[in-house]
């Protein structure tokens, strides 16, 4: 049983994947942390940056190619053959199905989730190396991104935190 003394006081969550299924775990963890009074930092790097880029936030999709765990929600656990993931339109289909299921659970779109976490006191950062590699500027990001950090600055902020990589 977890006691208050054992609970982390701070989490630093690294989001590196830019797919719908790659971004939501970090958002859910950060939101849950804030709801529990735990300080939360989100650090978006590599393709995870698409979650905080204007014009891309709510256009993230499910990766169907090379995803052996992909299952249709109503198929009761039967996997889709990975070959089906390569069919035209399969990613859009899987994304639409996932968004429909998330909507039933009242899980907000990425942009709204980012805003909720920010308003709840969560901190949102972008990775400097990735920003430079992708030739991005601060104007490319949603307003909730507080700062572009180096890895060293991220580690400094994360001192004493539980670091979670999604």
Automatic annotation (TrEMBL):
Family annotation (SUPFAM superfamilies): DsrEFH-like (SSF75169)
Entry superkingdom: Bacteria
Gene3D superfamilies reported for this sequence: DsrEFH-like (3.40.1260.10)
Signal peptide: none
Pfam families: DrsE_2
InterPro entries: DsrE2-like (IPR032836), DsrEFH-like (IPR027396)
Protein's name according to its UniProt entry: Peroxiredoxin family protein
Organism encoding this protein: Limisphaera ngatamarikiensis
Top-level taxonomy: Bacteria, Pseudomonadati, Verrucomicrobiota, Verrucomicrobiia, Limisphaerales
